[in-house]
Amino acid sequence: MNNFRFHAYTDIRFGKGQVECLPELVCPYGKNILMVYGGGSIKKNGLYDKVKELLSDYNIIELSGIEPNPKIEKVREGATLCKEHSIDVVLAVGGGSTIDSAKVIAAGAYYDGDPWDLVTDSNNIKKVLPIVTILTLAATGSEMNKNAVISNMATNEKLGTSSHHFKPQASICDPEYMYTLPAKQTAAGTADIMSHIFEQYFQKDSGAYISERFAESLLKACIKYCPMALKEPDNYEARANLMWASTQALNSLLTCGKGGGWTCHPIEHELSAYYDITHGEGLAIITPRWMRYILSDETVDKFCEYGRNVWDITEEDKYACANMAIDATEQFFKDCGIPMTLGEVGIDDSKLELMAEDTIKYNNMSGAYVALNKEDILAILKACL
Amino acid sequence: MNNFRFHAYTDIRFGKGQVECLPELVCPYGKNILMVYGGGSIKKNGLYDKVKELLSDYNIIELSGIEPNPKIEKVREGATLCKEHSIDVVLAVGGGSTIDSAKVIAAGAYYDGDPWDLVTDSNNIKKVLPIVTILTLAATGSEMNKNAVISNMATNEKLGTSSHHFKPQASICDPEYMYTLPAKQTAAGTADIMSHIFEQYFQKDSGAYISERFAESLLKACIKYCPMALKEPDNYEARANLMWASTQALNSLLTCGKGGGWTCHPIEHELSAYYDITHGEGLAIITPRWMRYILSDETVDKFCEYGRNVWDITEEDKYACANMAIDATEQFFKDCGIPMTLGEVGIDDSKLELMAEDTIKYNNMSGAYVALNKEDILAILKACL
Asked: Which of A34, A237, B125, B306 sees the fewest Cβ atoms within 10 Å?
C-alpha cells in the first residue's frame, strides 16, 4: 500500500430538502455571491427561485449559460465579475461543468493573467475564493474534489487542472434534483462515474485491498441503480445511490494507497475537444475497447477479479472470465441506451490520428495501468468506429 | 436512504515515515503543545524521541500514563495543564484511549467545571482546542471521528461523548508503529473495528446500498488481514489495511444514509466499567451471542446477506446460511486467540443483572437494530458465561 494523504474536507449535506442549509453554508464568507449555473433547468424545476429566496439578504451576481464541456470564455467572464463585484464566495448550482467552471473562476478572481493559464499550469493557482455547490447531476464528483476540466475550442484543447483549494467548502446533494434529468444524461453520467472508478481500479496492485473493494462496491451500485433510474426517473433510492456513488468515486477515497495514470479520460478528452461530444458517452465507447486491447497475461487476473467481484461471474477459466466481464461492461452501457460507436456520435476516422497524437502530447500515457503509445491509442480508437 | 451530513475533515497522512509531516501539521496553531501518551511503548520504539526532535522548536508539556479504558482522573489532569500552560494544540500519540483522552482534555481546556460533565452531557462541550494525533494502534477510529469514551471507576461508569469539534485536525497513521504490538492487542483491536462495522451494518434497511457494501468491504479486510498480522507482525500490507479499516469503519462513512442505535458497545461498556476488561475482547465475546439471540424471521435476510457477501457462504437455506455466518464470526475471533467466554476474562455471574440494568439506564436500547430490554441483555450476557 502506497503512502497517501486523504483530506476530503467538503461538508456534504445529502438528501431531500437540504437546500435549506444554504444560508448556513455561505454565511461564513461574506455577502457578495457569484451564482454560476447552466441553462434553464434550474429555472424550470424551481431551484433557481429557491436559491434566490433563501439568499434574499445577500448580494447575488449571476453567471449563467455554462455548457457541457465548459468553455474558457465563461470562466474568463466569471473571473472578471468576481473582481468587479468583490465576490466573497462562488456558488455553483448544477452539474460537473458548472462546478468545474466555478472552481477556475474562483481561482481567476485572484489571478491577474488569462484564466486559461490556470488550466494549462496548475502552479498558477495560488489562492481561490471559497466555493459552495448545489449538485443537480451525478457524474463528475466535482462536488467533493480538487479537479476541474475546461475546454478551449479555439485550440481544440480540453484540459484538466487541480488544486487542493478547489475542493468545495460545502456541497448540497439532493437526489430529487435528478428526477427531471433526460435519460441520456442519467446514462452518460453513470458511465462517467464508472469510468472514474475503472481509472482507479485498474492500476498496478499495491495491496490497497480496501480501495479495491470500495471500487467494486461503487461499480455494483451503478450497475444496480442506473437501469432503475432510467426506468423510474423519480425513484429516490436509485437517484440517491447514483449521486452518492458519483461523490465517493472521485473524492480520492478510491486512490488511497494506490497510484498511477489514467487512460480512458485522456483519450476521451480529445474526442470532446475535437467534436464536443457528451463526455460520458465518449468514455462508454472507449472503455470496453480499451479493456479488450490491454487484456494480456499481465492483466487477466485483475480483469477476472473484476468479473468475479462485480459481475458475479463464476467461470473458472481466467481469460473466459475476463472476456465475459468486458462483454458485460459493454452490454451494460448498450442496455442503458448509450450509443456505443464513434459513428453514432458523429465521429469518423478523419481525425483519429490527430486525436491519438494529442492524447500523447497532453498526457503521460506511460504511467497508465498499461502504458500506451500513439499506435496503441489509434488502434483503440479504430476499434470504436 | 436517510438524509445525512458527511464532514470528515481530518487531514490524514497515511504511511511509512509520515511523522515527518508533524511540524507542518501543528504549526498553524501555536507554540504550546500538550503531548498526551500512554505507557512506555512509544519510548521503546523511538517515536517519543522522534516527536521531541521534530518539535524541538516548540514548548512541549507532557501528560503520560493514559491507560486502556482511559480514566477521568487523567483527563482532569490534562485539562488543568492546558489552562496552566496556555496550551495551543493537544497532540495525542497512541491508540484510541490516548486520543479519546486528548479530545476531552481539549474541551476541558475551555471548561470551568469538572471535565466529567463533558462526558455525561456533550452539550457542555462548547469549544475545543485543536487536536493532532499520531496513531499507533488500529481499533477505535478516534483518529478521524467525533467520539470519545471515558471511564469513571469510582462510579463504575464508562460513557461515550461526542462533538463535531472533537474531530482531529490531522492524524498521522503509520502502520509500522503496529509491528511491535502484542498479539492480544492486534486481535482485540480488530474485534473492535469489526464491532463498529457490525453496529452500523445491522440496522434497519434504508436503501443505503453503498454503505452496506463499504461495510462488507471493511469486514473482509479485517478477516483477511488480522490473521496475517498475527502470523507476521511486521507484514506492512496487513498492518496498513487494518489501520485504514479502523479509520474508515468509524468516521461516519458507514452510517451515511442509515441510522439507528448500537447494541454490543453499550453492553460491553458495562463489562469494562465493572471489570476493566479489554474492550475489544468484551465485544468479541458478546457479538456472536447477540447475533444468535436476535436471529429471527425479521433479521434472517440481513444475516444471510452478511454470510453471502462477507463469508462467501453459498448455502441456499436462509436460516442455515445465517447460522453459518454467525458461527464463522465466532470461530474467527477464536482463531485470533481471543478468549470467548466471560469466565476467561474473569467475569462471573454475580453482576450480570446489575450490568444489564446499567446498559438500559445509560443507553436507549429501544432504537437498536432489534430493541432489547433488560431481560434480553441478561439472556445475552448469560450466554457469554
From this structure: A237
| ipTM for this prediction | 0.97
Q: Is B2 on the interface with A (CB under 8 A)?
A: yes
Strands (DSSP E) contained in chain B are 4-6, 11-14, 32-37, 59-63, 89-94, 131-135, 147-152, 157-162, 170-173
- CA–CA dist A42, A323 (Å, integer): 42
Quote the minimal CA–CA distance from A272 to chain B in Å. 31
Q: Is the CB of A224 inside 8 Å of chain B's CB atoms?
A: yes
Q: Closest chain B residue to A18 measured between Cα atoms?
A: B3
Binary contact (B213, A221; C-beta < 8 A): yes
Q: Number of A to B CB contacts under 8 A, please give it.
A: 118
B245 touches chain A (CB under 8 A): yes
Q: Do B9 and A9 touch (CB under 8 A)?
A: yes
Comparing CB atoms, the residue among B16, B241, B256 nearest residue A3 is B16
Nearest chain A residue (CA) to B6: A12
Is the entire prediction scored with pTM above 0.90?
yes
What confidence tens digit (pLDDT) does each residue in B23-45 have? 999 999 999 999 999 988 899 98
The domains located in chain B, with CATH, are 11-177 (3.40.50.1970), 183-383 (1.20.1090.10)
B9 touches chain A (CB under 8 A): yes
Q: Nearest 10 degrees: CA dihedral of B267, B269, B270, B274?
A: 150
Interface check for A5 against chain B (CB to CB < 8 A): the answer is yes
